[in-house]
Design goal:
single chain, alpha/beta, Rossmann fold, 8-stranded mixed β-sheet, globular
Length: 217
């Protein structure tokens, strides 16, 4: 459904990104979707296409510049080698700026690695109007925030989520935190060992409701 395009970054360079456009056109509310640590793979593109069918323009920046893996060690290597500041302030912001040329509102959301970058974008990218985080622990931010976390997650542990929620509360940030009896990456239908359809569908519906209240109103 979508297509690869080049997006101009604030520094003048370009970032490749996957664009999925809804039938509502270029003025529909928009969403910057941020990849898992595997890279911009078919699963991420499929989620972007799915969100486009819900009426959102979606851009997925290719943070790894074409590199994709199914090997956890290689994924970890690519993630740890990523310039998080550059990804946030250049790639993600460039996508948000591109979308905001015609869309009034733009949300950012991501999974795993993308979840952490989501809230960094909430802090540092002024074009962002809302954030949707799926199992990624970032610092506190200052726009409406929804987070989905798994109770059986050994990375974004329940204790870490409790600290995140407490910090958001102390900072007075408008937020919603949901916990699911599932494992890390429960949204990824291409990983049957962790995918939980019921939890994934519930998290998806909650996110659509959140977007309707924050950027599509």
């Amino acid at each position: 459904m979508g297509t690869m395009i080049d997006v101009k970054r604030p520094d003048g360079k370009t970032c490749p990104a996957y664009l999925a456009t809804p039938r509502q056109g270029d003025d529909a509310p928009a969403f910057v979707m941020i990849q898992e640590w595997w890279g911009l793979n078919d699963q991420m593109k499929g989620l972007a296409d799915r969100l486009a069918t819900e009426g959102f323009r979606v851009l997925v920046p290719d943070l790894y510049r074409g590199r994709v893996t199914v090997n956890p060690d290689e994924a970890n290597h690519m993630m740890t080698g990523l310039d998080f500041a550059g990804a946030t302030n250049q790639d993600i912001r460039g996508c948000a700026q591109r979308l905001k040329q015609t869309s009034k509102t733009v949300a950012v959301g991501g999974f795993c690695l993308g979840g952490a970058l989501t809230v960094l974008a909430g802090v540092h990218v002024p074009e962002v109007d809302a954030c949707a985080c799926f199992y990624g622990i970032p610092p506190s931010e200052a726009v409406p925030f929804i987070g989905h976390f798994a109770n059986r997650d050994d990375w974004c542990t329940p204790e870490a989520v409790d600290k995140l929620e407490a910090g958001l509360g102390r900072a007075g940030v408008e937020h919603e935190i949901y916990r699911y009896d599932a494992q890390h990456a429960f949204m990824n239908e291409r990983r049957p060992e962790v995918y939980d359809r019921a939890c994934a569908e519930l998290a998806w519906r909650r996110t659509l409701d959140f977007l309707a209240r924050t950027i599509a109103r």
